[in-house]
Amino acid sequence: MKKYCREMNKEKKSLSTSARRLLLNYQYPGNVRELGNIIEYAVALSIHQEIDKDDLPHYVQEQKKTAFTCSDNNDDIIHIPLGLPMKEIEKRVIGETLRYYGNHRQKTAQILQISERSLRDKIKQ
Fold it and tell me: What does the angle CA 93 – CA 94 – CA 95 come to, to the nearest 5 degrees?
């Protein structure tokens, strides 16, 4: 981050917890260069000492949360009791992810990193 601030003749900036969380959860389809571009964008547009999630590009802010993301609210957390069989854990994760994405099977399969066919088979079971 210092590099980008120095190149743009900007003061040093820090990341808020919410911005850091979004950056850590983002998938970066464009590789590490995309991270550099996102930081440059945020440094250029931020008017505060701390870069907040609102200073990040829109596509980073709007990313969907997965069932595995921790957050301040409980909308995207699945509580799994110790000792629960793996079949039941898988069933809960698939069910809650489907619910979160409005029963969109393609998106659910993508988020869970399984094929749509595997998802369909698991739903049938």
Answer: 95
pTM: 0.45
With b for 16 or more beta-carbon neighbours within 10 A and e for fewer, the 28-52 pattern comes to: eeeeeeeeeebbbbbbeebeeeebe
H or E segment to which residue 18 belongs: helix 17-25
Contact 95, 101 (CB under 8 A): no
CB contact at 8 A, 12 and 43 = no
Tokens (6 digits) for 82: 């110790």
**Element (DSSP H or E) covering residue 99:** helix 86-100
Query: Which three-class secondary structure state does DSSP give residue 14?
Result: strand
CB–CB of 55/46 below 8 Å? yes
Which tens digits make up the pLDDT trace of 4-26?
A: 555 555 678 899 998 998 888 78
Contact predicate 20/52, CB 8 Å: no
Q: Using CA atoms, how far apart are residues 52 and 9, in angstroms rounded to an integer?
A: 20
